[in-house]
Each structure stands twice: as structure tokens, then as C-alpha cells.
């Protein structure tokens, strides 16, 4: 099993994209 | 391949049983979802519909192979975290009645959240099973908050909830 190294490029890409998508999701979903 | 390699081990039988449980829970949850929110009715319902297809038909298969089990474990965990956050959001928006134990139990999606949580636990069991070799395997101490331990999921649940909440509150 290869390790997903913290604070390396791949880790940053995944986290930045994840935060943007989730922030957008929170903005978009209203349930009204 | 020798005869021994083709025989089923107890570990594989247990793994297959858990994968079947995962499939049943995912299918049940997906059918509940499509009954309430038809994907034909609204575009917004397409997101749970599509993630349902992934959870029911693709995730259980990914849990079967050593090469894909890490991806399956992460995808299962994060889909469930997002599901729990959105269902909690839905419960807050649609909450009615007095704030007491009865309405918290029955006027919210707590039941659905618990089903999703059960699916997470089964996914973790399948993942952890691959490290079982004998009856006496010791669990290494420490690193609770690091992948793939439970603390990793708690940290990510809190972090995802904060980012989702920020998106909902700060950006109108």
C-alpha cells in the first residue's frame, strides 16, 4: 500500500479542490 | 495455480459477507432516496442519485480487490460524511415542533443518518479485515488521528462540516 504523504503536492491539490467543492456545495444546497 | 490457492478462506468468506451487507445497505438507502426525491423531478436530486449508483454498484466491487480497497475505503467514508452533513442540514431547515428528545428522534433524519453510519462502520470492517492474519494480531498504539484510524474520520467530519457550514452561511 503506497502512502499518501501529508503536505506534499498531491495532498495540497486534493485538499484545496476538496475545500472549494465543499464550500460550493454548502453554498448551493439550500433545501428550500 | 494450486488447489489451495483456489479454496476460499474464512477471511474471504467474512469479507464477502460484509461486502454483501454493504451492498444491501447502499441499495436500501438508495431506494429510500429515490422514493423521496425522484431524479426525474428535480436536477438537484441527481447528485444523491448518481452517488447512489456509485455506492450500490461500484463501491462493493472496489472493496473486493487489494488494489482498489484504499480508494473504496476513502470514497465510502467521504460520501457518508457528506451524506451525514447534508442530512443534518436538511433536518435543521425542516425542523418543526418543540425542541425535545421526541422531535429530535422522529422529526429529523436521525434514523437515515444512523443507517449511513452503519454503512461506514461496515466499510471500515472490510478495510481492517485485510490486516487480520492470525487470532492474536495486536493493534498498533498511537496515531489515532492519522489515516486510516477512526480519529482521521472524526477530524475530517468536523473539518468538512465547518467548510460546508461556512459556504452556507458566509456566501449567500
Q: How big is the Rg of chain A?
A: 14 Å
**H and E string of chain B:** HHHHHHH
Arithmetic mean of pLDDT of chain B: 92
Q: Biggest sheet of chain A, open or closed, and with what strands and sense?
A: none
Strand/helix succession of chain A? H
Distance between the termini of chain A: 44 Å
What average pLDDT do the residues of chain A reach? 88
| Poorly predicted runs of 5 or more residues of chain A | none
Strand content of chain B: under 5%
Helical content class of chain B: 55-70%
> How many E strands of chain B?
0
Distance between the terminal alpha carbons of chain B, to the nearest Å? 61 Å
The number of helical segments of chain A is 1
Uncertain stretches of 5 or more adjacent residues of chain B: none
| Major sheet characteristics of chain B | none
What do these coordinates show?
- The complex is a heterodimer of chains A (32) and B (172).
- With 32 residues, chain A is an all-alpha fold.
- Helix content of chain A is 62%, strand content 0%.
- Chain A has one helix and no strands.
- The model of chain A has no long low-confidence stretch (mean pLDDT 88).
- Chain B has helices at 3-6, 10-36, 46-62, 69-93, 101-106, 110-129, 150-170.
- In chain B, helix 2 packs antiparallel against helix 3, helix 2 packs antiparallel against helix 6 and helix 4 (69-93) packs across helix 7 (150-170).
- The longest helix of chain B has 27 residues, at 10-36.
- Chain B starts with a helix and ends with a helix.
- Classes of the chains: A mainly alpha (32), B mainly alpha (172).
- Chain A binds chain B through residues 1, 4, 19, 22-27, 29-32, and chain B through 44, 70, 82, 86, 89-90, 93-94, 147, 160, 163-169, 171.
Defining key terms:
heterodimer, A: 32 residues, mainly alpha, 62% helix, rod-shaped, B: 172 residues
Amino acid at each position: 500500500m503506497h502512502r499518501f504523504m501529508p503536505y506534499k503536492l498531491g495532498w495540497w491539490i486534493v485538499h484545496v479542490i476538496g475545500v472549494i467543492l465543499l464550500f460550493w456545495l454548502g453554498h448551493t444546497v439550500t433545501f428550500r | 495455480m494450486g488447489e489451495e490457492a483456489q479454496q476460499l478462506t474464512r477471511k474471504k468468506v467474512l469479507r464477502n459477507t460484509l461486502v454483501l451487507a454493504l451492498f444491501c445497505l447502499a441499495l436500501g438507502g438508495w431506494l429510500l432516496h429515490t422514493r423521496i426525491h425522484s431524479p426525474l423531478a428535480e436536477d438537484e436530486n441527481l447528485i444523491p442519485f448518481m452517488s447512489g449508483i456509485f455506492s450500490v454498484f461500484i463501491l462493493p466491487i472496489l472493496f473486493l480487490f487489494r488494489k482498489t480497497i484504499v480508494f473504496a475505503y476513502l470514497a465510502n467514508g467521504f460520501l457518508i460524511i457528506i451524506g451525514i452533513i447534508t442530512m443534518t442540514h436538511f433536518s435543521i431547515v425542516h425542523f418543526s415542533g418543540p425542541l425535545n428528545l421526541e422531535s429530535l428522534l422522529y422529526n429529523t433524519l436521525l434514523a437515515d443518518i444512523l443507517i449511513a453510519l452503519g454503512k461506514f462502520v461496515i466499510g471500515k470492517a472490510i478495510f481492517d479485515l485485510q490486516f487480520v492474519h492470525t487470532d492474536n494480531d495486536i493493534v498498533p498504539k498511537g496515531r489515532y488521528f492519522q489515516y486510516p484510524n477512526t480519529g482521521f474520520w472524526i477530524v475530517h467530519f468536523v473539518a468538512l462540516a465547518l467548510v460546508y457550514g461556512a459556504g452556507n452561511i458566509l456566501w449567500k
